[in-house]
Amino acid sequence: MPSTPDVRAVLHAAVEAVGGEDRPGQIEMAEAVQHALESGEHLLVQAGTGTGKSLGYLVPSLLHGKRVVVATATLNLQHQLVERDIPALKDAARATLDVVPHHAVVKGRSNYACLHRVREGAPDDQGTLVDVPEGSLGAEVLELREWAEEQAKGSHLGDRDAAPAHTERAWRQVSVNHRECLGASRCAHALECFAERAREDAHTAQVVVTNHALLAIDAIDGVPMLPEYDAVIVDEAHELAARVTQASTDELDPVVVERAARRARAQVDGKEADDLTDASDALADVLARTAEGRIDDPPQPLQEVLAFVRDTARACLSAFPKDKDKGEPDAARQQARGMVDDIRKIAERMAAKGETEVLWMSDNRGNKQLHIAPIDVSASLRDKLFADKTVVLTSATLKLGGGFDPVARSLGLAPGDDSWSSLDVGSPFDYRKQGMLYVARDLPLPGRDGLEEAQLAEIAALVEAAGGRTLGLFSSRRAAEKAAEEVRTRLPDIDIWCQGDAQLPELARRFAETPSTCLFGTLSLWQGVDLPGDTCQLVIIDRVPFPRPDDPLMSARQRLVEKRGGNGFMSVAASHAALLLAQGTGRLIRRATDKGVVAILDPRIVTARYGSFLAASLPDMWRTTEREVALAALRRLDDAANAVSTPEV
Predict the structure, then answer these.
(1) Are 210 and 186 in contact (CB under 8 A)?
(2) Among the listed residues 395, 534, 594, 428, the one whose alpha carbon sits nearest the alpha carbon of residue 20
(3) Using an 8 Å Cβ cutoff, are 67 and 390 in contact?
(4) Which of 599, 616, 583 has its CA nearest to residue 49?
(5) What confidence tens digit (pLDDT) does each residue in 193-210 have?
(6) What is the pTM (predicted TM-score) of this model?
(7) Whole-number Å distance between alpha carbons of 402 and 615
(8) Domain 7-102+205-243+377-424 class in CATH
(9) What strand order describes the sheet that includes 367-374?
(10) Which DSSP category does 548 fall into?
């Protein structure tokens, strides 16, 4: 029998299996992760783009001998791990391991088709089961139902990612969330249930892939979503605090309360559902007189109406008949009960808001909605995740201002604490030779009214010099649209795509396939978009992406830091901006042959006191504040790209 191989041998075989080559940073990372898993010491690893960090943590996870959970922030990375990296690793490991450990994927219940809903139908707004909707939606639902039955016959996963193309509305007709589910003990289709089978599969796996939200629900909220595990690898860890906050955020509005009342009306015999409708009307009336933004001290009318919603939802919930009184479990009743219970819990949470939570109201075109979220999740992460499990956190952007402390602090790890260590394995790219960082020092400071003539002229000049090939990252949709409109007018021969012109994947595809075009957009383009090669030789960032001063959550966090004696601006606003700048700048160099310029049109990077903190968070590109130097570099890149695309005959 062969002995258990070391991490280097399996990593080398896995890298060969995916057609890669050994990289010192990847080897260093894999050995550090292996040490962390064995010692129980938490580890933060910054691994730059091109390092191959997924194999850097998957190999030691596979060799650990105990269950490891891998949590990602995005579906794209989860798909890459499950469809490419893990299968390649397991194929490579078969040559050196007696038994190759099993892996599984765990997603939220709504990501799987529900056979009960597929076969029995979905409730409408009044709680009546509707077999198939009419029109094009009905055609989509029929196709999804046929697909789900085929999945069941073939013992497949019933996973949404494998489903035929569909809309969100159609998917809701064939799926349920955790509150709508009848439960395995009461569902006639439990033995075939895709979600239950996925969870059973996870209990036999050594490596379990999931997302940040499910990890948070399992570890922090205490709701069992995952099998027992020894350690967790958090990839895209710069997103962890935000995703945990998002998973812990609740919303309440009159429309949702009224919808719950309508569903309940078909299930309860008394006037309790009508009382809940009255509570919805009262909530609408109070919100109409409430200012948008953060609510530090809820006024008496708001306190009273939240208590009214809570109490009427509680009474309505008590009025539901038990399943034993109505015969077999009923999906419509289960869904209605779940909706009313959600209303009760959220209203109760908002009515009891303490100092550790922030309450605010938003107004989206007349749809007024209350939100509540934890101000700071670091204590929860410290006490409920790091205290119980070994945690490895990795990302291409974990160092802010040149160090790990800002991110560590936001996640509940105290700077200087010997319970964790950090490692920067660098990047295989030579940023100083491949990239230029141009800061437009001579431009005026960004104004509150968006892009002015000076910025628009600068954008047009940069795009013209680059011959297109530009990814424009803007702080607002209005700025992106204004820049696109202006550049189209000034440079009519260059195609400019703007976020909103089509679905984002379609825009990214067009941009990648036509190198001389430009793609302008907002936050969703700052992270996760991979555009290697000549298609992107210029990244424009219009301004330092500080959070809005009236952002309820960020302003509450900043105030909390200051209350504790810290620097709220640097800890919250500057750290947030540094992280986004690092992510946005990282869109330029995606492989060893890429070259280009990042142009930041905000002089504060070099003129403000906090500018050095922001600059230290960015890749080590060659830097200049000279406009002509940047334009000349772009023209040379354009000439080189054109020479390659139109070779001499």
Answers:
(1) no
(2) 428
(3) no
(4) 583
(5) 999 999 899 999 999 999
(6) 0.88
(7) 9
(8) alpha beta
(9) 250-252, 367-374, 357-364, 293-294
(10) P
